[in-house]
Structures are given as C-alpha cells and as structure tokens.
Amino acid sequence: MKIRVLTIILCCFYAFSFSQEDESVLKTIYTTSLTNGMSYQWLDHLSNQIGGRLSGSKNAELAVQYTKAELEKLGLDKVWLQPVMVPKWVRGEKETAYIVTANKDHKINQDVNICALGGSVATPKDGITANVIEINTYKDLELLGEEKIKGKIVFINRSWNQELVSTFQAYGGCASERYNGAAEAAKYGAVGMIVRSLSSRQDDYPHTGSMSYGDLPVEKRIPSAAISTNDAVKLSDALKENKDLKFHFKQSCQQFEDVLSYNVIGEITGSEFPNEYIIVGGHLDSWDLGDGAHDDGAGVVQSMDVLRLLKESGITPKRSIRVVLFMNEENGLRGGRKYAEVAKEKNEKHVFALESDAGGFTPRGFSFDCSDLMFSKIEAWRPLFKPYLIHYFEKGGSGADIGPLKNDDIVLAGLRPDSQRYFDHHHAANDTFEHVNKRELELGAATMTALVFLVDKYGTETITNIKEIKD
Amino acid sequence: MKIRVLTIILCCFYAFSFSQEDESVLKTIYTTSLTNGMSYQWLDHLSNQIGGRLSGSKNAELAVQYTKAELEKLGLDKVWLQPVMVPKWVRGEKETAYIVTANKDHKINQDVNICALGGSVATPKDGITANVIEINTYKDLELLGEEKIKGKIVFINRSWNQELVSTFQAYGGCASERYNGAAEAAKYGAVGMIVRSLSSRQDDYPHTGSMSYGDLPVEKRIPSAAISTNDAVKLSDALKENKDLKFHFKQSCQQFEDVLSYNVIGEITGSEFPNEYIIVGGHLDSWDLGDGAHDDGAGVVQSMDVLRLLKESGITPKRSIRVVLFMNEENGLRGGRKYAEVAKEKNEKHVFALESDAGGFTPRGFSFDCSDLMFSKIEAWRPLFKPYLIHYFEKGGSGADIGPLKNDDIVLAGLRPDSQRYFDHHHAANDTFEHVNKRELELGAATMTALVFLVDKYGTETITNIKEIKD
Predict the structure, then answer these.
(1) Cβ A360 vs Cβ A315: under 8 Å
(2) Partner A contacted by B435 (CB < 8 A)
(3) Is residue B13 part of a domain?
C-alpha cells in the first residue's frame, strides 16, 4: 500500500514538473501577445463595428460570421459552426420611468434611469403607474403578505456589499433578487418589479441581466426592470418623504420564438493525442445596452488569440486545442449545453476547459474546478507565472459555458482578472471598448495561452493513472 | 557563536509573528476603507475643485490649505506646515506645433499635439521652424555629430518597450531621453528637441515631465517638448516620405524665482515610543496638464486616510505615525529633501517610511528597500494580506520623496498598484478623477494602513537588536 502511494506521488511530480524550456516558452507567449497580439484589434471590431450581440439578434449573427472568418484566417485545422436554437428577446423602445411626486400646486415628474430585465414582459402601452413598496430582498415579500403588496410596484433595493474584496461575491449576494424578484412579487399581486442595479458603483447606468418567471402562468407575469444605483437612492429617499408617491414606467420588450444560431469553433488538431480535447472559450453573445466589450467580447478575443499565440510561438500541441465561442450565455446557456451534448454524443474525451468571462482586466490567475490532487499538481506551475504577476491559483468555479462539460475526468478553469471594475460596466451601456485596456487584455490572452500550453504538454493523465490504480 | 545566531533568529520570529487578532484588525481596516473611506471624496475635491498642482502655482497653494484643513478635522495630535522653497515654472499659452509639408501646389500644415517639458525654455515669440533629424536615443547624437544636427530640431523617437510586464521598467528605459535629450542635443547645435511621449498607449495626449539642462549656459538652452505617441508615428512617417520637411513649434513657458511653499504634515503621537517615527506619504504637487488624480492625488489621499483609518479602526499606535504630503516631487524633490533635512537636524528616529506614488489602481503589494534579513521578516506577514489579494512583497525601490531619509536603520517601502494603466495617464491631460476607481483607491489606502499597523505593532527592533549584537 505504501509503495503504491509513493508511486503515485512520484508519477505526479514527474508529470507536472516544469523545465527551463517552459520558462522560455512562456516568455515567448507573453512577448508575442504584448507586441503582436490580435485580441485588441478583434475586440475593436466586435465592439465598435458590430456592438451588443444579444442572442437571436442581427448583431449576434454578424458576430458569428466575423469570428468564423477571422478564425479561418489563422490556418487552423478546422473551423466550423455548431447549430443551436436560442431564445430571442427584444428590448423594443427605450424605457421611460419617473417618480410622480406632487406638491399642493402641481405634479412633478422626476425622471429616473431604468432598463427592462432580459426576459421581462412589456408594460401596457401607456406604462404602469402605481404606488411603490420598497423591500430589501424578495424574501421580505412573505412577511408583508398580499395585502400590502397587491396592486403595487415592488422595489427591491438590496445594496451591494462593498466590504467584499471579490466583487463577484458581492454580485452573487444580489443576483437572485434580479432573477427571481418579479416572479415572487407577482405571486403577491404586485403589478411590476423594479430592482436596484447590480453594480459596484453609484452612477446613472441601469444594468440589465436575466430574470425568470419560473412556472408562473403567462397571464400572471409582471414587467420588471433595473433602476440605476443613483436613482435607487433617489426613489428610496422620495419614499421616505412620501410613502404614497407613485412610480411610472413603460417598456415594450417582447419574447419571440427561438431562432437558429451557432457556437463558433476552431481547432488545432493534436499531433500525438488528437482525440483528447482541450478547449478555451468565452461567450459571443452579450447584452444589448453596451457593446459587450468586457462581457464577454474580451473572453472571445482572448480565446481566439490563444490558438493564434500557440501557432505564433511555434508550439505544436500534442492534444487537440479548440476555441469555442459560445452563443447565448446571457439568457439561456444554450450554446454551452449544446457543446457538451454534442461532445457526449461523439464520445469526445475533454480533458481541460478554460473560460474567460470575467472581463478584460489585468489577469490575477485562475480558479480551478477539479480534485484536490489535481489542483496540487497544477499549483506546481505557479512559479512559472510569477514573472507575469500571476499569483492567484485557487480552487473554485470556472465558467458558465463550460460547466455542462463537468465530469470526474475533466479539469475546468476560469481566468480570474482583477474584479474591481467589472461590475461598473457589467450588462450596462458603459460596457464599451474604451473601457478595455490593451495591455490588460493582452496579458489575459497570454496567461490563458501559457496555461493551455502547460496542460497540453504535461496532460492530465495523473488523474487517469490514479483512477486506474484505484480501480 | 552558534547560540548567538539562534537567539537572533528566535528573536526575529518572535518580533514578526502575527496573531489571529491581527487578522481581525486587518479585516476592520479593509472594511472601514471600503465602506467608510474618505480617500475618494478627498480626491474628488483635489482633482475637480483644485486641479493640477504644479509647484509654486496658486493651485498648489490651495492644495496645501485644503489638505491641512482636512487633516485638522481628523483629531490628530499635530498638524503643521513645513516651509520649503520650490521652483516655479509656468507653461504659458497652449503650445502649437505642425509638420510643414509641401506639394507642388501649396504648403500643408499638419497639426500635431505637443506640450513643453517641465523646465524648458520658450521658443522665440513666433516659434521655431526647422528641419528635423530623427534618432532613437540621445546617445545617437554623438555618432551623427554636429554637422548633421546643427540648426535642426532633434526628434527622439524612442518607443515604449511593450514586452515588459512592469510599465515602470519600460518608463525607466526612456526617461533619460526626456530628461537629458535637450541638453545633449544643444551641445551639437540643435535648435529644439522633441521627444516621443513616455506613454504605454497610442493616442493623442502629449505627456510632460521634468527635463534638465544640466550645466548648459543659459544662452545655449533650447526649447524641448513631448509629442503624442500618435503624432510621433505621424512625424516619423512624414520624415520617411520627405526627410527635408520642416517642423514648427511654439511655446511660451517661463522659469521664475523660487517661491515659498510647504510640506503638509499630520501626526498621531505614539503612546509608547513617541520618538520613533513611521511616515506615510505621497506628493501634493502634480503636473499642470491634468488634475494629477493618479499622480499623485491618489497617494496623497490614501496617505491621509491611513491616519484616519487607524483611528476609525480603534488602533492606538505605539509609535508616532505621520502623514507627510510632500511638495515638489515632480520638478525638484525639494519637499522630500527638506523633510529629511529637518528630521536629521532634530535627530528624529525614523524607523519606517511608506510612499504611494504609482497611481490609485488595485494594490498588488509593496516593494521594500531594506536588508535581506529585515525583508525576510516582513515577508512573514504576507499570509495576512492574501485575503485582500495582496501577493507582491519584493525588494526594490520605494518612493522618490522618502528616498532622502535612507540610512541603515530605516525600512523604506513603496505601495505597488497594478501598473498597466498608469502610463496611459501619467503627466498628461487625461490624468483625471474619472479614471480613478473608488474601490481600487480604497483598497490601496487599506493595504497601506494594514502595513503601517503591523510595523507599528511589531516595530523594526530586530534590526537594532542585530546591530547591537554585532557591535
């Protein structure tokens, strides 16, 4: 028994050590990305020539065509489109909203900035005007009961937890208010739901995002929107002065039948193990308010550049390396599910998947969804990344699109860029190209490429070995 | 002998270990900064109500008054101004410059963006128009010789080394072109010097900065300016087409007599060792083109907040903690020199000095200028900072203003924020408040406070002990 354990450990160290040659390869990868990267140029096109790419939209279609054409220029072994049916939701006219306040002489309407949540129904043509009940979380609805809610607009004013260093953790703390708020409020007879924008910043941008009515019948669905953080404060203050004020909002969004769209895939076929797949990706769709530059144009162009940087750095992968540009992460995850479904059907052995979907900011490292043993081996590569100020190697989540690939054999990973500014822009009109820094984006692409290079070179066979020994 | 070494090592471990209580203090410090920090509000005033604060200017005076008044509100034990004579250089009217090109029919003037370098002389009233000779570094002047340079404008077009992950290293690679270029070019009879802006970005902003004529007699001094990176490319391309083109530039800057200004100092007097000083600071002056928000408004407000955050977190320092807002870092370092001079005169024992002068970006850690032994002890605190994603503890430089305090006993340190965006803004008109992220700034203030807390609690006595044993 002892001998067996020793063998495993030795085998692991052998499999995951690294050489001076690796240091030099990483240097080449980073230098190439910083001096001859394509990610920034691609992102410029995706953001400024195409723009927001909501699933089912014309722009999403243009983005499919553009990225496919760009991948085809790279001399990969294969580039193809993987069909997937996606939901089609359309915002319609720009939303309007105001707080109706009145003094003894006349009504005053104070305009506020809102946007419909993705998937919401429209208001009646002339909008909704109703009293407002402010709560902190949809869980408060039960305490209040139907009597206090019926006929009103529920305003969920849950504030961002600024104490948390990880802004993703703070986001996680409010996301269900946006996602479930309308369905829950509707159950108590609310006529509309307004949620404070999920943003780390006080400003005038409303932030959209997906919501769900769950199993609520169509006739019971109520319109829901996000209000900017500044206007959430304004509305809350106004309610403190006059709890009987009325709020008006109008939106004309519509849900259509599903439409055909695509995941865009490119592959360098492995020279030794062509049937082992390593994938790297981001999602091609985005919300419609901004250009989707950080979410997730950045992840798309970085992933595309991984394959290009491998080639430019003279690396011939042993395993098949795929870039997968997933469609419909934002409001359905259909692309991620489709890719995993097809991979399973074809019995493709995926050993590693890496997603970049946390913005094009300075990379800090990765989080890994894998066994402790596997993680301890990956951690041994950490010193290789230190010259590039990549220190963060932790266990944790990976990415929504690659989640459906999860099984006991695959290692899932997510690029972890600096998160401080991400939710200033996330799902809002200011998620635009000028907020992406070229060097930060390129450092991310290089960091991803370096990890893919190491995984390809050293494989993930230790897991398999150990499983075999166990079996 | 062996026993003595062991004693030293044990003593060091004792002195620098940390406790669970420290973890909880750091948590309080970070939470307070992120939820109740003052740095962002102070920076808003400094940037938007005052603006660029070049030494000797009205704005510099306003900044002295404002920060003194704000420190006085904090209930510190002492707040005072330390007089220091500073240079006064004034830019005058906005500079103009163009490339004179001509085709057979008519002259065409292509406007370009330049700014005078700090300390430069003016051009004659109508500007200078002359042929241009492009070089990569002022060291090329010697190879060319007077014959090829005389009567021309020397254009030093040294490009930024994008390969380097540390942008400060890339800056260091070109800084002497800006600083020495004019003096060197003048020796060979040049009539003007134009340097490519020291910036990591391709854009239209010229970046100023200090230059020196060394011991060049006044009558030999030639005007010098920085040209934006986009226009450096434009000029270089134009020269490739026509090496005989002329370049015109006009600037009306002036150097005046030195004027009286101040370092602003606040102190919490130590409860146990009032005669041991820990200082934390940034520089109050800035260049005149932008608001000096990152350089170094950020360092100023973070340093002010260190003393406030200590108080708000209920910490009673054992040693005297001073915030020092240095005047004239940008074009003279008079404030830093004055502070060290007075400290020496008064025989004040300074044990630790920390400067923040690298922008208000996400903090990555610190660099320390101290002995290896001391550094290994400080490094033992690293785990305390990990929850805040502070990983970088390295030996290296600290800050220009605290440099004059250097001796064998003091530990000097510099806050090291993420450097990728710093030189997009440094010394340019786009160094403005809107480019500073609130959370990034506040994380920096908290990180500085945490280090000051630990240094104060555990002291730097190991160094002294070791010295005593050696003696």
Answers:
(1) no
(2) no
(3) no
pLDDT of A19: 85
What are the C-alpha distances in Å from A125 to residues A121, A153, A250, B342? 12, 17, 7, 74
* CB contact burial B271-284 (16+ within 10 A = b; e otherwise): eebeebbbbbbbbb
Residue A247 lies in a domain: yes
CB B60 within 8 A of CB B326: no
Which residues in chain A are contacts of B389 at CB distance < 8 A? Answer: 165, 364, 392
Of B252, B287, B316, the last residue of a domain is B252
Q: Does B420 touch chain A (CB under 8 A)?
A: yes
- Which comes out higher in pLDDT, residue B15 or B135? B135
Last residue of one domain, picked from the residues A192, A223, A252: A252
Rounded CA gap, A117 and A70, in Å? Answer: 32
Q: Which of B30, B389, B393 to mutate to test the interface with A (most CBs of A within 10 A)?
A: B389
Reported pTM: 0.94
Same-domain status, B96 and B156: yes
Assess if residue A5 is contained within a domain.
no
Evaluate whether residue A7 is within a structural domain: no
Does residue B2 register a pLDDT over 70? no
Query: Do A230 and A321 belong together in one domain?
Result: no
Q: Which one-letter amino acid corresponds to residue A98?
A: Y
The verdict on a CB contact (< 8 Å) between B35 and A443 is: no
Shared domain for A262 and A404, answered yes or no, is: yes
> Which CATH number fits the domain that encloses residue A312?
3.40.630.10
Structural domain of residue B329, as residue ranges? Answer: 19-88+257-470
Interface contact B440, partner A, CB < 8 A: yes
Contact B424 A440 (CB under 8 A): no
List the CATH number of the domain containing B204.
Answer: 3.50.30.30
Could you tell me the end-to-end alpha-carbon distance of chain A, in angstroms, rounded to an integer? Answer: 14
B35 touches A at CB < 8 Å: yes
Rounded to 10 deg, the angle between the A140-149 and A167-187 helix axes is 40
When CB atoms are compared, the residue of B163, B167, B392 closest to A35 is B163
Q: Are residues A464 and A357 in the same domain?
A: yes
A285 and A427 inside one domain: yes
**So what's the pLDDT on residue B460?**
79
Positions in chain A whose pLDDT score sits under 50: 1-15, 463-471
A138-151 burial code (b ≥16 CB/10 A, e <16):
bebbeeeeeeebee
Check A30 against B165: CB less than 8 A apart.
Answer: yes
Specify the DSSP class assigned to residue A182. Answer: H
Angle B91-B93-B98 from CA coordinates, rounded to 5° = 105
Strand A273-283 versus strand B224-227 pairing type: unpaired
Q: Quick one: pLDDT at residue A134? A: 98
Q: Rounded CA gap, B413 and B442, in Å? A: 19
- DSSP E strands: which ranges in B301-381? 319-326, 349-355, 363-369
Q: What is the pLDDT of residue A460?
A: 79
pLDDT at B461: 63
Contact B437 A443 (CB under 8 A): no
- Is the peptide bond preceding residue B305 cis, with omega within 30 degrees of 0? no
By CB atoms closer than 10 A (0-12, 13-18, 19+), residue B237 is: exposed
**C-alpha torsion angle, residues B210, B211, B217, B218 (rounded to 10):** -50
Tally of domains within chain B: 2
Residues of chain A found within 8 Å of residue B163, distances taken between Cβ atoms: 30-31, 34-35
Task: Say if residue B97 is in the same domain as residue B81.
Answer: no
Q: Mark whether B100 and B82 lie in a shared domain.
A: no
pLDDT of residue A17: 65
Closest chain A residue to the Cα of B161, Cα to Cα: A35
CA distances from A343 to A55, A279, A398, A464 (A): 22, 11, 18, 19
Catalytic hit among B276, B329, B330, B442:
B329
* Same domain membership, residue A341 and residue A416: yes
